[in-house]
Automatic annotation (TrEMBL):
Compositional bias of kind Basic and acidic residues: 175-219
Annotated localization: Secreted
Pfam families, per the entry: Furin-like_2 (PF15913), TSP1_spondin (PF19028)
Organism this protein belongs to: Cepphus grylle
Gene: Rspo3
A single GO cellular-component term on record: extracellular region
Keywords, in A-Z order: Disulfide bond, Glycoprotein, Heparin-binding, Repeat, Secreted, Sensory transduction, Signal, Wnt signaling pathway
Subunit and partners: Interacts with the extracellular domain of FZD8 and LRP6. It however does not form a ternary complex with FZD8 and LRP6. Interacts with WNT1. Binds heparin. Interacts with LGR4, LGR5 and LGR6.
Protein name per its UniProtKB record: R-spondin-3
Domain Spondin-like TSP1, residue spans: 116-170
Lineage of source species: Eukaryota, Metazoa, Chordata, Craniata, Vertebrata
Function: Activator of the canonical Wnt signaling pathway by acting as a ligand for LGR4-6 receptors, which acts as a key regulator of angiogenesis. Upon binding to LGR4-6 (LGR4, LGR5 or LGR6), LGR4-6 associate with phosphorylated LRP6 and frizzled receptors that are activated by extracellular Wnt receptors, triggering the canonical Wnt signaling pathway to increase expression of target genes. Also regulates the canonical Wnt/beta-catenin-dependent pathway and non-canonical Wnt signaling by acting as an inhibitor of ZNRF3, an important regulator of the Wnt signaling pathway.
Amino acid sequence: VHPNVSQGCQGGCATCSDYNGCLSCKPRLFFVLERIGMKQIGVCLSSCPSGYYGTRYPDINKCAKCKADCDTCFTRNFCTKCKSGFYLYSGKCLEKCPDGLEANNHTMECTSIVHCEASEWSPWSPCTKKGKTCGFKRGNEVRVREIVQHPSARGNPCPATSESRKCIVQRKRCQKEGKGKKNREEKRKKSNRDESKETRQESKGRAARRQNREQRENNNKTQPKKRKAPNKEENLAPVDTAH
């Protein structure tokens, strides 16, 4: 260490020298040696760089190097990320995954093999032929299922998701689309005519009743009131029965 040790250092150093850089760090910072050519310079960092792991001691916090195949590590013997060409498994970096596991090139880890899983079959569809359900005797019916779990690279492949088989139906004639459409149109028109006829009849009936009521009211207004005929019994003279 160069004898010229300074106390007024910058960059988180507690003590430093012009030749070796930081010699000690301020509290909570990590001390690490960085190589610059043939020379190593001490620096103080808030966290350890890639390829190093931090250890804390009462007098100093240091960054120590990971194993050669580790990119980042928790301790020297426990990697958290491997360098290119290695796969992480239980804190170790391996060139080949153990039996029962497969290499995941996306995460660069050894993972469990996942096999394909499919749902239960759906019920068989109606028997059809060329998209029709009538006008034939022999046709086909199908059933389907869905993939609920896709396989990994070394997992069992997925089975077929649809099946078809021959079927026999009772022969029946197909109703012609044009005729059926014409019948429906005629029924609709007839229904509209019947509704219109009923509506017209109801309107005529209301108009006739209203006209009769108005005629009676007019007759009552124009005709003079009849005088009440006198009672014949009141005009008869009393009969003298004394004689």
